[in-house]
Amino acid sequence: MAAFELDLRDEYSATLNTFFHFAVLGIITIATGRPFLFPSLGPSAYLLATGEQPREEGAYHVIGGHAVAVAAGLIAYALFANEVSAYVVFDRPDPAFTMELLYLSASATVAMMLTTATMLVTKTNHPAACATTLIVGLGLMGGLEDALIIVGAVIVLWYVHEHVISRVAKMYGFEPDEPRE
Fold it and tell me: What is the pTM of this model?
């Protein structure tokens, strides 16, 4: 029977990596007053920090997947839910059975369909981007400025990971083991 060994190296490195990812984006958010932090960055940062899915970590997948998701979300939102926001609809006392919920549901569904098909065709597979398409498709973030912020934040996340965090992690020995199991 093998002895149980507690090795927190991967947990320490992933946690530290994630801290640096979000510290940089948090500073940008604070300095600009714009939402450079949003929910779908969490899964992307996790994949980058842990090395869980190496194929989905590259710039093509991370940036490309989110760019596809933003485009698909904008298209679906423009077609079905233009000017409707889940923030507003769900803040009402009784939003059930409204046309606005039908529009938002259609937008979210079509956004996911477009994102899935386009990521498969372009091989930009990055599952975390599916959350991005829902953020846009539900009107939580949208329009050209938010689209640019989303893609910009993803570029910053990947760039900082690839060109700063990964190099420092290797230099000081806190990168995660490859491959993770």
Answer: 0.85
